[in-house]
Specification:
43% strand; six-stranded antiparallel sheet; single chain; 11% helix; mainly beta; elongated
Length: 336
């Protein structure tokens, strides 16, 4: 699926498409609301300034510290950006300190988010790390945090060993240990836009769907379905299935989104798990027991789904089940 989505985005890039940001949107998770509520409750008034004594941060083998931190809730899902800086900061002061501390290479950004485990449980996991304003690194596998809690206006937790970022100039940054930082207000959500336009994506109503999706025992009745052409006027489509209606943006909001290739004639079609719980999942060929029959027209893709398959992501094996019928609306790519 990554190959197809790369091709889609390459095509859109040639058409002048602009990148889109995710948003809580109409299909945002209930967890997104709870994260925002926590941030709002603590807000910028959180004033505790404590050095992170339990956090062990090293750059090229040398300790980097003391460090101070805040947590920024993600407005789109149950996720947090943890910011650690080399000067005392609060929710009211960290923005002013970011630029100065980045110049001294004393800014560590960590992304943690709720993820679905293969046994069907949800656990907060480390998703990525960046240093100052440089590039970001993601773990090779799903790395659940040994502990994570949000209470009393603070985020507390423990980072496992192995959280690191390699910088060619500065060396390897490693982070481990415990943290306790105030929760700030979430940043303003950026809306989704229709591909290749500056028009905000409008959710497309779906009627008559009998389709259902299950992944690791969790699932939904399909309430949103769109098909994104790989090329304008082509028959090869990327169909996105979600719990709530969504629009023609490149990304689809939701905790769990299943993406299917249809109309592929030169190779085996792929399936992707997307959404907040599967950020960065890999593509896999359809399994032999998964049947996806599609009738593609200029305006719709009629799908009949049946069967199950195993899906491997970050060293965990998930069971996917698809059933029922649904008609997806074809999104129109802008013409050159």
């Amino acid at each position: 699926m990554q190959q197809v989505m790369t091709l889609v985005m390459a095509t859109l890039g040639l058409l002048g498409a602009a990148g889109c940001k995710k948003d809580s949107g109409p299909a945002g998770s209930a967890a997104a609301g709870s994260a925002a509520a926590v941030g709002s409750a603590s807000g910028s008034s959180a004033s505790a300034v404590d050095a992170q004594a339990g956090l062990v941060v090293q750059l090229a083998g040398k300790p980097l510290g003391p460090l101070y931190g805040v947590a920024r809730p993600d407005p789109q899902g149950n996720a947090y950006e943890l910011l650690f800086l080399g000067v005392p900061v609060t929710c009211a002061t960290y923005k002013q300190a970011l630029g100065k501390e980045s110049d001294t290479n004393r800014v560590v950004r960590l992304h943690v988010a709720e993820a679905l485990r293969s046994e069907g449980t949800l656990a907060f996991a480390y998703r990525g790390i960046s240093y100052a304003f440089g590039s970001a690194s993601s773990p090779a596998g799903l790395m659940p945090l040994p502990s994570f809690a949000v209470a009393g206006g603070k985020v507390t937790g423990t980072l496992p060993a192995g959280v690191q970022h390699d910088d060619r100039t500065l060396g390897t940054l490693t982070v481990a240990g415990t943290f306790a930082v105030p929760v700030c207000d979430p940043p303003m959500a950026v809306p989704y836009f229709d591909v290749g336009t500056s028009t905000e994506a409008v959710p497309i109503p779906l009627t008559g769907s009998t389709a259902t999706v299950t992944v690791a025992g969790k699932g939904f009745a399909v309430g949103g379905a769109t098909a994104m052409p790989v090329a304008p006027g082509g028959k090869e489509m990327v169909v996105r299935l979600s719990a709530a209606p969504h629009g023609c943006s490149s990304d689809v909001p939701g905790d769990l989104v299943v993406t299917l290739e249809v109309g592929v004639t030169t190779r085996s079609p792929n399936i992707d798990l997307n959404g907040h719980w599967f950020d960065g999942a890999a593509s896999m060929d359809f399994g032999p027991d998964l049947k996806v029959n599609a009738t593609v027209t200029a305006d719709t893709v009629d799908l009949t789904l049946d069967g199950t398959m195993d899906y491997k992501w970050n060293e965990e094996a998930y069971t996917i089940g698809l059933a029922g019928k649904v008609t997806a609306t074809v999104c129109k790519l802008p013409t050159p």
